[in-house]
Write a structure and sequence with these properties.
alpha+beta, six-stranded antiparallel beta sheet, six-stranded mixed beta sheet
């Protein structure tokens, strides 16, 4: 059964007062390699059907939500009844709101989009050439490429019929040699924009830097964070920017004495952090798709139109993620989350290499990993550097240093920036399994806290 037909079938079987149904049909193609040799490749398919049953209780609306994978036509009624039973056992939902009514999107009746191994048609030959060059240079390449294409169909008893096709691709490359280990990665919609020679050339350069080793103690160092590391920090900030939690005094965005810090200056430089479903190369669903309710999400908001939202504008906190009900509580505009994130600074920002060239003495980080929250009230994070930390002296990289554990708050870090570089698409290292559509600049921090030396290598 086609996913949109499953939506219609589930809606027709519903016995509750209202119902929302979401069908996701996904296909995935992947390549993996190790030691300059392709090891595996494959294509998979998956499907999921989510039924949200809504029951009027007299004092509100109770919701029951059940999701199942690989549901066929004979299983749909059982799924609908399970969601209705869940709704029957629940109290009125705090996030209840009228169902969204909007014009149907185009392509509802078309078959789901599908990817296949052909998405790597141009990428695979370039990867083969990179294997040969690495072998000749006594380097070994490891990594994987993954491409997923998900068609999502959202329908409701209120007449909602929306569809979105989402391509999500990523490439992670790791090179090993006499200079240790170096990593790079990119996000992509279709792999036609992936420049393999440029990526592997940068890895080779970093391995050359790593042939000289310098031990440094823990401390605060002027540090250049590349776009990937910035993405990991800003994504965590974004995930922590719920308006309801801030209003309740639980987060770094809570104002002393109550309310939120919206309108407060956060950054020392005029940076803007925003999400936009239409951002070129980072396009994502232009409407809300929620399979479950949470502190910053609501199944009642399915189908709400999304546009550009500035979370930080010219250095000021301008918005926090909202549902319709939390917007009523906080008195702030309705700003649901969007599945991409972009940071920009003043026009004319320098490239990463240009920022290195004007560094008298400092550290250049490759990426961050194993990031964990220490204190939500300050959004203090800890984590490790990985795959290359380099010492810069007199505008040149002079060698690789040991890894560190860091302790930093991305909110506090924004207040100490001394330079924001040019924005470009990037892939977060830590969060690439969950969030790939980002564009970030490199940042210069005068006193990044490398709290302890790490023995990880």
């Amino acid at each position: 059964m086609r996913p949109q037909d499953a939506v219609e079938r589930a809606l027709s079987l519903s016995r509750t007062d209202d119902c929302v149904v979401i069908a996701d049909e996904a296909s995935t193609a992947n390549l993996r390699w190790a030691g300059n040799t392709l090891t595996t490749n494959g294509v998979t398919r998956s499907s999921r059907l989510t039924v949200i049953a809504l029951r009027n209780t007299g004092d509100g609306v109770a919701a029951g939500v059940v999701s199942r994978s690989a549901v066929d036509s004979d299983d749909i009624e059982d799924l609908v009844r399970a969601a209705e039973a869940d709704a029957a056992g629940n109290e009125a939902a705090e996030d209840a709101a009228p169902l969204v009514r909007t014009a149907p999107s185009g392509g509802w009746d078309d078959d789901p989009a599908e990817t296949g191994i052909g998405v790597f048609e141009g990428f695979a030959p370039a990867l083969g050439e990179a294997f040969a060059a690495a072998q000749e240079g006594d380097r070994r390449l490891y990594g994987f490429a993954n491409h997923a294409l998900t068609s999502t169909f959202v329908g409701s008893s209120a007449g909602l019929r929306l569809r979105h096709d989402q391509p999500t691709g990523l490439l992670e490359l790791n090179a090993k040699g006499a200079g240790g280990s170096a990593w790079t990665g990119v996000g992509t919609r279709d792999f036609t924009d992936v420049d393999v020679p440029a990526l592997t050339g940068d890895l080779a350069r970093r391995l050359e830097w790593g042939e000289r080793r310098v031990d440094l103690p823990a401390g605060r160092y002027e540090t250049i964070l590349p776009p990937s590391a910035v993405a990991d920090l800003m994504i965590y900030l974004y995930w922590s920017a719920g308006a309801q939690d801030a209003h309740d005094g639980r987060t770094v965005f809570s104002a002393p004495g109550g309310g939120t810090r919206v309108g407060e200056r956060l950054a020392s430089l005029p940076v803007t952090l925003f999400s936009d479903p239409a951002a070129p190369g980072l396009e994502c669903a232009p409407f809300v798709v929620e399979h479950a309710s949470g502190r910053e999400s609501s199944v009642f908001d399915n189908g709400l139109a999304l546009g550009r939202t500035d979370w930080i504008g010219e250095g000021d906190l301008t918005a926090l993620t909202q549902t319709r009900r939390s917007a009523e509580r906080t008195g702030l505009p309705l700003t649901p989350s969007v599945d991409n994130l972009v940071m920009t600074g003043p026009d004319g920002g320098a490239s990463l290499d240009e920022m290195v060239a004007r560094t008298e003495r400092g550290l250049l980080v490759t990426c961050l990993w194993y990031i964990r929250e220490v204190d939500p009230q300050r959004l203090l994070l800890t984590g490790l550097t990985r795959d290359g930390v380099y010492l810069v002296e007199g505008g040149e990289v002079v060698g690789a240093v040991n890894n560190f554990r860091f302790n930093e708050s991305p909110v506090d870090l924004l207040s100490r920036l001394t330079e924001v570089g040019a924005t470009g698409p990037t892939l977060p290292r830590e969060w690439s399994d969950y969030f790939t559509r980002t564009a970030m600049p490199p940042l210069r921090v005068p006193d990044f806290n490398m709290s302890t030396v790490s023995q990880a290598s």
